[in-house]
Amino acid sequence: MHRDHASLSVEHDPSTTLWHLVLIESTISFRNKKNQIVMATSIVNRSRRIFVKVLMDFGVLASLPFVSRPIAARPPEKTRPQADDLMVYAEGDRKGQLIQAADLQINAKPIAALPMEPVSSIIRAGSRLNKVMLVRLDTARLSSKTAKHGADGVLAYSSVCTHTGCDVNRWNDTTSRMVCSCHESEFEVADAARVVKGPAPKPLAMLPLKEVEGQLVVKSGFTRRVGFQQM
Ligand code: FES
Predict the structure, then answer these.
(1) Please, which residues have CB within 8 angstroms of residue 192's CB and are 6 or more apart in sequence?
(2) Residues 135-154 pLDDT 10s
(3) Domain extents in the chain
(4) What CATH code is assigned to 86-218?
(5) Could you tell me if the CB of 169 is within 6 A of ligand 1?
(6) Is 183 close to ligand 1, i.e. is its CB under 6 Å away?
């Protein structure tokens, strides 16, 4: 009985009631502040999305250097060969002219060539990694993986040696091998430029070709990374 009385007197203690009121008021205030923060964050996020959209609509975003740099496309003259590129002479009297499949004779010295973008006629001469050597062999001599990337025996190999990057510019018509003049690496043309002699660690990259109405046309990109081992 004494305890019940004491308990009742605590429940009706004015200071306790005041404390409860303060606590309730603080909780409501905190919730209001939290709601305000959530609302403010939402408005900021929405505004930011609208701002970015406006910039994109007006092309402003793409022109900003810190945005455009990572997505900037490589210029066409430096871009690696693309499907449907045409092949042109890279040097000599006919430099820049289109190369026909009929220009290549079986087992004759390879022809230095570059790909050309077919619509703009831009020759991809901005990188030596785009230069290839065109050579024709009897299709009966080609390994299956070589034949499938050729156009009726016409094959295109990167001219950059996989050893230290010299031009592979010599031809042995007895063995039908391409030879690097720097350290004498030899590449088996009939078998996807397999290394048969010298320090080159890897075969030359191959550029798949097709023939369209007598024209040599790139079928797809290089079969492997172009360049030498340190690149
Ligand atoms: S760079 Fe070709 S063999 Fe060394």
Answers:
(1) 143, 145, 146, 149, 203, 206, 223
(2) 999 999 999 999 999 999 99
(3) 2-71, 86-218
(4) 2.102.10.10
(5) no
(6) yes
